[in-house]
Amino acid sequence: MSSPAAPGRVVIVGASLAGLRAAETLRREGFRGELTLIGDEPHEPYDRPPLSKQVLAGRASPAHTALVRAPDLEATWLLGEPAAALDPHTRTVTLAGGREIGYDRLLIATGTRARPWPAAEEAALDGVFTLRGRDDAERLRAALAAGPRRVLVIGGGFTGSEIASVCRELGLPVTLAERGPAPLSGALGAAAGSVAARMQRAHGVDLRANTTVMALEGDGSGRLRAAYLSDGDVVEVDVAVVALGAVRNTEWLAGSGLAADARGVVCDAACRAFDADAVVTDDVYVAGDVARWPHPHYDGLLLAVEHWDNAVRQAETAAANLLREPPAPLRPHRGLPAFWSYQFGVNIKSVGLPTIADEVVVTQGAVADGRFVAAYGRQGRTVAAVAVDSPRWLPAYAGFVAANLPFPPDLHASDAPDPLRPVPAGLALDDRATHSPTAAVTGDGPTASDRSTHRDPRSPLTAPPL
Question: I want to staple 240 with a disulfide (CB 3.0 to 4.6 A). Which of 14, 152, 324, 386 is the partner?
């Protein structure tokens, strides 16, 4: 392509939020060439956050989660057949059925999928579910509507906690097993997780912290009937939801020569992919949940962020840079990670990166009142903030994080505790993660080997009782 408006072929692998927003940005920026989107699901792009909230609760149907898209996109949609291989030398993407799609510029936005239960026979039991896509939500919604005796949620991250919240809203008994010290502790630390634990128990959740599910058992017809816990209990359940985080969709890139592994595809701050020799490419870009990039604000640490807002902003940045022609400058992706969750009637919002913090302090409001803001610090610098039913204050904290203000921040707020009392954040050690946090440091450099291992979720952090 000699200019943004010149004929050319752009292929986007991944037809979800990031892929759609990238396609719209390309057209908005003047690209008039061939545009192809490849997606492994048969559905057109849809919104995922409502799946674990409105859809499971029956307030919306899966069909009503479709994303609004530009009417003049003029794209070719190849849905229901995933990409199987990439050859950067011939600039071709091979689909699972063998068809080859050529490109001049490529954007990888393949996202993630739900991490399955590790025992295949147990995972195949009728009544065992994961929740990532629209079809998952439809099946799980039907199972909850049938009125199971008890639901077991395996994993207390944001998805698991939201599912437990919906179960209680529907009046269903629910047990949540979390290998860490508290729900949300993998993303927000044990200190904030203790607040989530109290909230869950107050709403009737049978919360089992520091507990793993050792095995799932079915009856003679292959129907789930019980779960064996590391605390020695056997819980009779009809439905189990595996909420153990996400797996990044990178297997199709094996042999492509890109710096890609189970942690994601490494790219620079302009979203250009690195190859296996740590050389940045000019025709392959990455965006969304599958990307790992050096965030300028966090000393170049490679981040992988599973947030709606990040997928949109990174896709827009990648698309703009994909059309760039020298000597025009590259646009860096530098937005702070941000997310939100609604559970047990409480709105939780965050900005920054709590997962790297060593301290946390309540800066406004009071935990006992259920409305507060907590700031996170790392080595004397403010790196994140979490607002519980106090969303209007969060933009100010985003400014504190972006400005590298000292920790704890000196706000002089009328509702600030006096004095501020920082406590250890209580983040899990890297080798003790219980589920994928929504934003995480993922390692050093584009060619560093993947030394990380996802521990078997059945392995407790402490020895189970005899």
Answer: 152
